[in-house]
Specification:
Distance between the termini of chain D: 43 Å
Structural class of chain C: mainly alpha
Shape of chain D: globular
Order of helices and strands of chain D: HEHEHEHEEHEHEHEHEHEHEEHH
Largest interface: B-D, 57 and 55 residues
CATH superfamily of the largest domain in chain D: Response regulator
Oligomer: heterotetramer
Helix content of chain C: over 70%
Largest sheet of chain C: 2 strands, antiparallel
Distance between the termini of chain C: 6 Å
Chains: A alpha/beta (502), B mainly alpha (331), C mainly alpha (322), D alpha/beta (343)
Number of domains of chain D: 2
CATH architecture of the largest domain in chain D: 3-Layer(aba) Sandwich
Structural class of chain D: alpha/beta
Chain lengths: 502, 331, 322, 343
């Protein structure tokens, strides 16, 4: 197996600590090579290094034997390496065709874009991927899932022989995932393309990849090939010795009464008759893939977005929340999954971020901010959640993903909520912090708070939720009791009985 | 089927830019009404005079459209226009022929445009601040160089060329129409010009898919300054003189035209040259109607300001149904 | 690094400004002892700078909101005209003044609503109100100064208290109150957060639109106050007052450390910015430099102070401070 | 989507009707008193800094003469001093083919092509207050600005007894005010060599800026005994400056024109005298000349296609009104305080 790509001793440092340490591995030509690891294992960083976005502090990348040095995306494309990023990078003010051929549209001799030919080429590429979309459609009008596919089409349209897919299936439906895998296999067979596929969903990895490399906490553990690729081996290598108790964290207190009930929530084009009930001391998990309308329904519930119809009763009385401000005042708090745009004031220091949601509590009679009381509260949470480095005046933006999530939790908990809604709480967080968050959520529930957990990570849902509400494409597909519920049963509910049999 | 229908509706919708069409409707209604008030309103002479009076604003509005689409703003144009007019006259009086003189002045403007972007990146500051500082500096310089008087008595060969008419139109108007057509086609079709939409829409994504964002921003600020220089030169063609007071609040009128035409300052990457020209015609029309109908022209500022706010409100409320702009944090 | 850089940036800026002012004053007092460093010169040049100072304080708050207010000049003119017409029509002084402050705040609130609920870009909204109220000022007066104001009213702008001109005292009061409240008041902490990111503030339960309206209302109120003081100082209301004052206010605030991206800036920095521009202009005239250079000076100073700031943060970075 | 488009269209229509109603309403339909058939003749006065008090007085005279002759008059022009804007206004007005245009030019050269173009269309054009010598305008009616400056210099020369330092406050860029400064300096050099002009400040059309620049100049030259402002805004600013440094008694302040603010300072004794020309008469005379130019008789006139209009320029004298004269003389006060208003 001649290696199209060899990584030797790759090391990368962010703000003083190693994110990747001495990673060496080989990617065979024409194979589908999966790179797996828990959140925070350094998968995305490694891929960004291969894709030319980051430059490694140590180590060498060899392509077809000779050393290459990449500074930006353009040079990577020249070397035949294309990367599809985890966060969407499409310009939603432009058409599909323009997004696919960003900056390299076919032009005539005056440098004028040949519109017709561009649309035809775009149509051809979309056709190959089995998508019937009008290339002149504005990307802004497409669903998140469709935008992800446009992103992939854009990268594939470059003449590349190494395609990196950074967690591409996170927002695709089962049908779309099947399409994607079929396309990946076709690219490998027909065009001899090498695909590096990053995921932390083991079933997908087993379905598609020829070889699997495992990363843990920035170190390279090993590569499995052929029959060696089994779920248990992979989990063991991903999690290592530290026993990641995947078992269900049972509640320690009796079930409290229903504090919040939502019936028939609807919003045109986003979600239809979403209903659920939240009980004190219990965690209700909502499982579904991105684009299933879970976040949208919650945003409408707390008044951040429009709600067309539906009834919400809270502590016995019917309410209609007009803004997050009113929701927080009533004790209903939402921890957003979009830290960058909705969660934290990145350029501002920790103390500002933490007290931002409960300024009222820290305002003295003379309308001034009681700095001492605020300082103590923030200090308390820094100790309690062990935020590193434990300094008050460093900007939130300079912290790692895990610590940023801790800051967000401090901000939310400071408002001492009665109902805590967490959205993808462990996204982009390293394993250590993930454990603390899981145990914290369970302790919070035991302390009397009604917790609503939104997550697309099935193990996390199964580990924490007392009851699981399954949503798919804007509808509730079923409410399952979590008495040793298995992943298969949940997926069955997601797609409804018949589809799973195929 | 549903897929097909929505894209068809969509294509119509984005063609029929609500805000620009509302302004076109207003233009038609006002023209009809004015033709009753003053019968010579739709005469060739009046239309020509109306367009002639908005040539400098028009040329500058073309450049500003690209700057605003890319997410920036350029106030230095109000300093560059008189500056180039003055330097151009001084060069000609010093014996430089008007063609090389033109080249020198355009090069100087390009340098100013480059300085705008360089300082914007070096000082990591909003373009509003840097271009305002450059405007103040240039205006001060213009005042000192001309000693607050005006420069005239230009050489004979220039006086002749400046009176030449092409197809019955004066040179400044012809130059504006040519530039408008060129910029419209380039922005719609040319690959490099299209990059401005990417940089405006999603700068990070543009960087990732291989667009040299810095080079695009240099181009945007340079073309804005060069067009301001062209406006300055056209003023000298028009008046055969230069004065420090030219274009004293030209930037306000040009930006109003661009924004009324539908280019958005809260959402990057939205806007068309066609919209800007519609905005321009609208403002020229309002200005002209006041002049001809003899109403107290102080009301004109009130009406123009009110229409600017009204037009953008219509755009915000209808086109985006109040969806908050991605960049609403930026001013 | 961002916040440290910002912390260093604001306090560093205040340091640079104070040093520059002290150096200028020292040099000038040395070169022109009898004309520069006299109580009357310092006092009188301060008096003439008060209008800019009040407007610049209002502008600092708007910049902290990540916005800009181009309509302060016309608000000054419009308020002066309306108050003068009221007084000319025989209205008693105090109600006329209250009406003026109300008008200024009203226009500010309009700006805030257009930016907040209307979704307009701050530049576009205040550009619109700028031409509307400049036009209305001319419509009301068709260019004439509105005179014949009662003696008591012009006493405010022209009188002195303990030997110091009332204008300086009022401006100093405004600056002191704001300098005291801005770092402490919870309202300004919300302004500070909305300026950084409206969407994060909205999700954190801060009513961003209300804060925007309040910020612009404060700027409008201060512009109204300047309009009243100007009307009383020159005993007339005039539609041509304060043309282009918004540019000077923004320049002074930015020299003082305010950042257009919102969230940053201090009242003290702005005060020093206004003083520095005044000292430089004053010295320029003392040297008999032709006054035509004045417009260019503030432009060059703006770029220069920003430049020093960049150099200082770079040097600090090299020394591993941040 | 449909409902919202309907509301937009409705809103847009309302706005448009509002404007057009304004347009029709505003059509000037003043009937001239007495004169027979000339009521549809239109004479336009194009100025810069439309709204400055001085030009309001010129237009008042222009309008009075127009009413006398039973013709219509109109005031147009930019609010600022941007010469290129004023040239555009003149081009547009030419399109209306008025019977005559009176122009006060923001600067000497920019208006040349606009004026010649209007004359080319057969419209008589004359200039007033600030001339445009390079153009073929028929004649110029204006104040003899150099004598304007000389009158002020004479008064200051007497008051200061022939020696001392003086400051001039002027609007940079205004041709008329530049001539006044020149007249002031020449007269001083000739008759009162002992008096030295130490500083020329810019009032830049804003009272507060005039005050701050003048204050700084006064501080820089403590020996100054007199201040002369060549414009209305500058007068109020200079008076305020002198008041700021508290030397109202020692410093002689001479203003220009009779803006309401200047008159008030005169009453309070903060301005000792003001040089006044007669803008009202200038406007009135200009209208008469323009009317004559627009009505050629069968005798061929000096400037052929147009009527019998003076070929040499007309200069109006100016005089000095001291504070005492103004306060005692009742009808003088009455004349200047009832400012004409028109829309």
């Amino acid at each position: 197996m001649d290696a199209i790509l060899k990584l030797e001793g790759i090391g990368k440092m962010f703000g003083g600590n190693y994110v990747l340490k001495d990673v060496s591995l080989e990617i065979g030509r024409g194979e589908v090579h999966a790179v797996i690891g828990e959140n925070g294992a350094g998968k995305s960083t490694l891929m960004k290094i291969i894709g030319g976005i980051y430059e490694p502090n140590e180590g060498v990348i060899r392509k077809n034997g000779e050393k290459i040095l990449l500074h930006n995306a353009i040079e990577a494309y020249k070397q035949g390496i294309g990367i599809v990023h985890q966060e969407l990078s499409v310009a939603d003010n432009l058409t599909i065709a323009e997004n696919i051929f960003a900056g390299r549209q076919p032009v005539n001799r005056f440098g004028f874009v040949r519109e017709k030919q561009m649309c035809e080429d775009a149509g051809k590429i979309l056709g190959e991927m089995g998508i019937r979309l009008d290339p002149r459609e504005k990307v802004g009008n497409l669903s998140v899932a469709m935008q992800q596919i446009i992103e992939i089409a854009k990268v594939v349209s470059h003449r590349i022989d190494v395609l990196i897919l950074d967690e591409p299936t996170s927002s695709l439906s089962n049908k779309e995932i099947a399409h994607l895998f079929e396309l990946v296999r076709r690219l490998c067979r027909e065009q001899g393309m090498t695909v590096i596929f990053i995921s932390h969903k083991l079933d997908e990895v087993m379905a598609i990849s020829d070889r699997v490399s495992v990363l843990r906490n920035g170190n390279f553990i090993g590569t499995l090939s052929g029959e060696e690729i089994t779920a248990s081996r992979m989990i063991h290598m991903m999690v290592g010795d530290q026993l990641d108790s995947r078992s269900f964290l049972a509640p320690k207190t009796p079930e409290g009464e229903v504090i919040l009930r939502a019936e028939g929530l609807c919003r045109e084009g986003k979600f239809r008759d979403v209903s659920f009930a939240l009980q004190k001391n219990r965690i209700l998990g909502i499982f579904g893939l991105i684009g299933a309308g879970r976040t949208e329904s919650i945003l409408s519930l707390i008044g951040a977005d429009r709600l067309d119809s539906g009834r919400v009763t809270y502590e016995g009385r019917e309410i209609r929340l007009s803004s997050p401000k009113e929701a927080i005042a009533k004790g209903i708090v939402y921890l957003t999954e979009n830290r960058r745009d909705l969660g934290l004031f990145l350029p501002k220091e920790i103390s500002d971020n933490v007290i931002a949601a409960s300024l009222g509590a820290f305002t003295t009679k003379r309308h001034t901010v009681d700095r001492k009381k605020a300082g103590e509260a923030v200090e308390g949470y820094i100790q309690k959640l062990k935020i590193q480095p434990p300094v008050m005046d460093k900007p939130a933006g300079t912290y790692s993903g895990g610590n940023q999530q801790k800051i967000l939790f401090s901000k939310v908990l400071l408002t001492d909520p009665k109902v805590l809604i967490v959205d993808e709480p462990t996204k982009g967080v390293d394993i250590g912090v993930k454990m603390t968050i899981h145990h914290m959520l369970r302790d919070l529930a035991d302390s009397g708070i009604a917790v609503l957990l939104i997550s697309s990570e099935l193990p996390e849902i199964l580990k924490l939720s007392d009851r699981v509400l399954v949503m798919h494409e804007g509808e509730c597909r079923g409410l399952l009791e979590n008495r040793d519920l298995t992943e298969r049963e949940v997926m069955a509910a997601v797609y409804g009985e018949k589809e799973v049999q195929q | 089927m549903r897929q097909k229908m929505s894209s068809l509706k969509n294509r119509i919708l984005c063609r029929l830019d609500i805000q620009a069409s509302a302004v076109v409707l207003l233009i038609v209604v006002i023209s009809i009404a004015m033709s009753f008030v003053y019968d010579g309103f739709l005469s060739a002479y009046n239309i020509k005079a109306m367009l002639m009076s908005y040539v400098p604003e028009g040329i500058i509005a073309l450049g500003l459209t690209l700057v605003i689409i890319s997410g920036g703003i350029d106030l230095s144009v109000a300093g560059v226009m008189p500056f180039t007019a003055i330097v151009y006259c001084m060069l000609m009086k010093a014996g430089v022929h008007y063609l090389p003189g033109m080249a020198i002045v355009l090069a100087a403007a390009a340098a100013i445009g480059a300085v705008n972007n360089f300082l914007r990146r070096l000082l990591d500051v909003h373009p509003f601040i840097i271009t305002m500082a450059v405007q103040l500096t240039l205006k001060g310089f213009n005042l000192v160089v001309t000693g607050a008087g005006s420069i005239s008595g230009l050489p004979e060969n220039f006086m002749e060329i400046s009176q030449v008419r092409i197809l019955g139109l004066k040179i400044p108007l012809v130059v504006f129409l040519l530039l408008a057509a060129l910029w419209m086609v380039l922005l719609a079709k040319n690959r490099f010009f299209r990059k401005v939409y990417f940089v405006g829409g999603n700068p990070k994504a543009a960087e990732l898919c291989g667009i040299n964002v810095n080079r695009v921003m240099y181009f945007v600020f340079i073309q804005s300054a060069v067009l301001a220089a062209v406006a300055g030169i056209m003023a000298v063609f028009n008046y055969q003189a230069a004065n420090y007071s030219y274009g004293s609040n030209l930037d306000t009128r040009a930006i109003t035209a661009v924004v009324v035409g539908g280019t958005s300052m809260t959402r990057g990457g939205i806007g068309k040259i066609g919209g800007t020209i519609i905005g321009l015609v609208f403002i020229a029309l309002v200005y002209n109607s006041f002049l001809l109908s003899g109403i107290n022209t102080y009301y004109q500022d009130v009406i123009t300001g009110a229409f600017l706010i009204g037009a953008v409100l219509i755009g915000e409320r209808i086109k985006y149904r109040g969806k908050p702009g991605k960049k609403e944090d930026k001013s | 690094m961002e916040e440290q850089k910002k912390k260093l940036h604001v306090s560093g800026r205040i340091l640079t400004l104070s040093v520059t002012i002290v150096v200028c004053v020292a040099v000038m007092s040395f070169l022109k002892p009898e004309t520069f460093f006299t109580v009357s010169n310092l006092g009188s040049s301060l008096t003439t700078v008060t209008f800019n100072l009040i407007l610049a304080c209002g502008m600092t708050v708007v910049l902290m909101l990540g916005c800009v207010d181009l309509s302060v000049g016309p608000i000054v003119a419009f308020t002066s005209v309306v108050v003068a017409k009221l007084l000319q029509g025989g209205a008693p002084i105090v109600p006329a003044i209250l009406a003026g402050l109300l008008i200024g705040s009203g226009i500010g609130a309009l700006n805030g609503t257009l930016v907040g609920y209307g979704g307009l870009a701050p530049f576009v909204a205040t550009l619109g109100t700028q031409s509307v109220f400049r036009g209305l000022s001319y419509v009301l007066t068709s260019g004439y100064s509105v005179t014949g104001l009662p003696e008591g009213f012009s006493k405010i702008g022209q009188g002195t208290l303990w030997g110091i001109s009332n204008l300086i005292l009022i401006a100093a009061l405004v600056a002191a109150v704001l300098a005291l409240l801005v770092p402490r008041l919870a309202f300004f902490k919300r302004v500070y957060l909305v300026g950084t990111s409206r969407s994060v503030a909205f999700m954190s339960g801060i009513n961003s639109n209300l804060i925007l309206i309040a910020g612009y209302t404060l700027s409008g109120f201060l512009a109204g106050l300047s309009g009243i003081l100007m009307a009383s100082r020159y005993a007339m209301g005039n539609a041509g007052f304060a043309v282009g004052y918004e540019t000077q206010a923004i320049a002074a605030a930015v020299i003082g450390g305010a950042v257009m991206a919102g969230g940053e800036g201090s009242i003290l920095g702005t005060v020093l910015g206004v003083l520095l521009v005044a000292v430089v202009n004053n010295s320029f005239i003392q040297f008999g430099g032709n006054a035509e250079w004045q417009t260019a000076i503030s432009g060059i100073m703006l770029v220069f102070t920003l430049f020093i700031d960049v150099m200082r943060t770079r040097k600090a970075k090299r020394k591993g401070l941040i | 989507m449909k409902k919202r488009t309907r509301t937009t269209l409705a809103m847009v229509l309302v706005l448009a009707l509002l404007l057009t109603a304004g347009a029709c309403g505003g059509k000037k339909s003043e009937e001239g008193s007495g004169a027979a058939d000339r009521s549809d003749e239109l004479y336009v006065y194009v100025t810069f800094e439309k709204g400055s008090e001085y030009f309001n007085w010129v237009y008042a005279g222009f309008l009075a003469a127009a009413d006398e002759l039973g013709v219509k008059a109109e005031l147009q022009g930019p609010a600022d001093a941007d010469a290129s804007q004023e040239a555009k206004v003149l081009d547009t007005v030419t399109g209306k083919h008025p019977n005559g245009i009176l122009a006060a030019c923001a600067d000497q050269d920019t208006m040349v092509s606009a004026i010649n173009n209007a004359l080319g269309e057969g419209i008589p054009v004359i200039t007033c207050d600030s001339d445009c010598p390079g153009s073929d305008r028929l004649c110029y009616l204006g104040t003899d600005n150099s004598s304007f400056g000389a009158v002020a210099a004479e008064y200051i020369g007497e008051q200061l007894g022939g020696s001392g330092e003086v400051i001039i406050v002027t609007l940079f860029g205004s041709a008329a005010q530049e001539e006044r400064c020149a007249g002031f300096n020449d007269h001083l050099a000739e008759h009162y060599p002992g008096i030295r002009v130490v500083e020329t400040c810019n009032e830049s059309g804003d009272t507060a800026t005039a005050e701050s620049n003048t204050t700084a100049a006064l501080q820089a030259n403590p020996g100054v005994k007199a201040v002369f402002s060549t414009g209305g805004t500058g007068s109020a600013g200079a008076a305020a400056a002198v008041r700021t440094i508290g030397r109202t008694e020692e410093i002689v302040v001479v203003g220009s024109d009779f803006g309401t603010a200047t008159l008030e300072c005169m009453e309070k004794g903060e301005i000792h005298a003001t040089v006044v020309d007669d803008p009202y008469m200038m406007g009135y005379q200009s209208m008469l000349q323009l009317f004559a130019a627009a009505h050629p008789t069968d005798i061929i006139s000096a400037n052929a296609p147009y009527g019998h209009i003076t070929t040499s320029d007309i200069y109006f004298g100016c005089s000095l009104v001291t504070a005492e004269e103004y306060t005692e003389n009742a009808d003088l006060k009455e004349k200047y305080t009832n400012t004409p208003s028109f829309n």
